[in-house]
């Protein structure tokens, strides 16, 4: 994502469902806040491309198809500067490919509610997009959300600080408060009161890294929790209705079972509010 050096390019994907309209609303609100432009993409299954995941370059949408997409998106986008595209193939592949080729700064997707059983299975379009995307993705729930802040979940590594930088850009551009969150392991026979008062060396280094990015005189709001990473992050976010959770997301690999996957994948599926995924 880029800030004042150029206008943001926000890409929003749709499947023409009513739930997808909330993605349009989120993209329009964000683009208005950052003086950006919007691209809307819909992916249609088509012949061999749908079966193999290989884009059918010869297939181009008709003017009637593009006009249908414009009419569908118009109630949410209004007169906001927008462009429209229709691709053919598998959504998880074509959305991430189009985002990279069109040099999008952010991809907006709707994270639809699913049962625990279906969530545990592979094949989810959102998961497929973020595993492939080189562009940060903002995943919004299928309801209206008033943003109240941005929380960056950090693991204390230098690579993980990319999550904080992306979260800072989003928070700055939208005028939202920013916090950093890290989870330390809970050790057996460790007095709870003492553990709460004495951060680990890892957390102290993390606080210094956050302060360095914000500037020497800036506050470094690092929240430290202890216990299971996913459980503690979710507990924090349940107390922060409307806040965006920013997480690092490792690209590539097979879909697998989400419940047995990385912390990032589990948080994406279970977080109660919007999630910003940062490719690592």
Describe the structure.
The protein has helices at 20-33, 47-52, 63-77, 91-101, 116-120, 125-132, 161-174, 192-197, 201-214, 229-238, 263-270, and strands at 9-14, 37-44, 82-88, 106-110, 137-140, 149-153, 178-184, 222-226, 243-249, 275-279. With 280 residues, the protein is α/β, with parallel strands linked by helices. It has 2 domains: 1-110, Rossmann fold (3-Layer(aba) Sandwich); 144-280, HUPs (Rossmann fold), CATH 3.40.50. Strands 3-2-1-4-5-10-9-6-7-8 form a 10-stranded mixed sheet, with helices on both faces. Helix 10 (229-238) runs parallel beside helix 11.
| Sequence stretches where pLDDT stays below 50 over 5 or more residues | 47-58, 117-123
Q: Under CATH, the topology of the largest domain is which?
A: Rossmann fold
Number of domains: 2
Termini separation comes to: 14 Å
Number of helices: 11
CATH architecture of the largest domain: 3-Layer(aba) Sandwich
CATH superfamily descriptor of the largest domain: HUPs
Name of the CATH class of the largest domain: Alpha Beta
Strand-residue proportion: 15-25%
N to C succession of SSEs: EHEHHEHEHHEEHEHHEHEHE
How many beta-strand runs?
10
Most strands sheet: 10 strands, mixed
Secondary structural class: alpha/beta
- What is the residue-mean pLDDT, rounded to a whole number? 82
- Tell the overall outline: elongated
- Backbone CA Rg: 20 Å
**Amount of helix:** 25-40%
**Largest beta sheet: strand ordering:** 3-2-1-4-5-10-9-6-7-8
